[in-house]
């Protein structure tokens, strides 16, 4: 994942000293009905099952295999796309989900690879599991104005290589690329967007308010696969799920300021601490539901 100082670019270091544009968490919504609570429990269990299967794999090939099995269980077929870029070779996974055939493309993705340390549960089985959940839901109930493809990038940890290869090898340019990286716990949806006035930001604000969550949206955000799209001039945003109080600490760390104690994210990823014990499936399920709501609101408003 890009939440690593060693991957930070000079431009980001400057951006990280800026405060993110944040909306405070609204008052808690009314108590869920029994049906809604049951649905959220089901969503949490499904997300955790995917995170468990991906993070249990011995290597990155095994992580991709777990993702392929999860897609197949939802009636979706993954396409393996091998690539060679610089001195690296890898394999991306792509799957077409559905939607109007002539509609603009919404590309949803996360990186599937991990560093050697830890199990990569938070970084980034958590984000991959979000993409799997959205793939299943958008297959069952397609968007009205966008066709959807999901992607699982290889070799992000070596420099966003899988995402860069997709662009370099002529992958379809999306109307929007939506990335997920580090989505394991917390009460805040952290959204990287270069345009705070974009309709997807407004939709995310409405969705998080309805979910009783906080939203932090702005350019100040760690490097991850969205950067490959931005460098190509393609539209892209990225979402993470963290504690609202972690965001200022993470930005300070990227600005090379001393933070004591560090944010939880900085203590977990790229370390032996990155295990299933750190994730919170209930919070993650709420976050996934909010993102789905935001994407459906944005899609419905598209003309």
Give a nutshell description of this structure.
With 303 residues, the chain is α/β, with parallel strands linked by helices.
Mind explaining what this structure looks like?
The protein is α/β, with parallel strands linked by helices. It has a single domain, classed as Zn peptidases (Aminopeptidase), CATH 3.40.630. Helix content is 41%, strand content 20%. The protein has a 9-stranded mixed beta sheet with strand order 1-8-7-9-6-4-5-3-2, sandwiched between helices. Strand 4, helix 4 and strand 5 form a beta-alpha-beta unit. Helix 6 crosses helix 10. The two termini are 34 Å apart. About 9% of the residues have low confidence.
What labels describe this entry?
41% helix, alpha/beta, 9-stranded mixed sheet, 9 strands, globular, 303 residues, Aminopeptidase
Tell me the layout of helices and strands.
Layout: H1 10-15, E1 21-23, H2 34-55, H3 60-73, E2 79-85, E3 88-98, E4 105-111, H4 121-140, E5 147-153, H5 161-168, E6 176-183, E7 188-192, H6 199-211, E8 214-218, H7 226-231, E9 236-242, H8 246-254, H9 264-268, H10 281-301
Parallel strand pairs: 4-5, 4-6, 6-9, 7-8
Antiparallel strand pairs: 1-8, 2-3, 3-5, 7-9
């Amino acid at each position: 994942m890009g939440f690593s100082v060693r991957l930070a670019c000079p431009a980001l270091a400057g951006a990280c000293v800026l405060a993110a544009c944040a909306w405070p968490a609204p008052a808690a919504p009314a108590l869920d009905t029994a049906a809604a609570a049951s649905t959220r429990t089901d969503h949490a269990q499904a997300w955790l099952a995917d995170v468990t299967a991906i993070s249990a794999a011995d290597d990155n090939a095994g992580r991709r295999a777990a993702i392929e099995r999860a897609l197949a269980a939802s009636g979706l077929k993954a396409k393996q796309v091998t690539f060679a870029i610089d001195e690296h070779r890898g394999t991306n996974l792509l799957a077409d989900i559905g939607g109007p055939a002539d509609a603009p493309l919404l590309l949803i993705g996360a990186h599937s690879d991990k560093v050697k340390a830890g199990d990569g549960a938070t970084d980034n089985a958590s984000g991959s599991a979000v993409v799997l959940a959205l793939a299943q839901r958008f297959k069952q109930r397609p968007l009205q104005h966008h066709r959807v493809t999901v992607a699982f990038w290889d070799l992000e940890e070596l420099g966003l290589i899988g995402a860069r290869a997709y662009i370099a090898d002529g992958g379809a340019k999306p109307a929007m690329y939506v990335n997920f990286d580090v989505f394991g716990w917390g009460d805040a949806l952290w959204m990287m967007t270069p345009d705070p006035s974009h309709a997807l930001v407004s939709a995310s604000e409405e969705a998080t308010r309805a979910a009783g969550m906080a939203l932090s949206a702005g350019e100040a955000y760690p490097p991850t696969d969205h950067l490959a799209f931005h460098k190509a001039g393609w539209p892209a945003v990225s979402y993470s799920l963290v504690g609202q109080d972690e965001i200022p600490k993470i930005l300070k760390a990227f600005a090379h300021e001393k933070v004591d104690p560090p944010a939880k994210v900085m203590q977990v990823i790229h370390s032996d601490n990155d295990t299933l014990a750190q994730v919170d499936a209930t919070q993650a399920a709420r976050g996934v539901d909010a993102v789905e709501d935001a994407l459906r609101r944005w899609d419905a408003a598209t003309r």
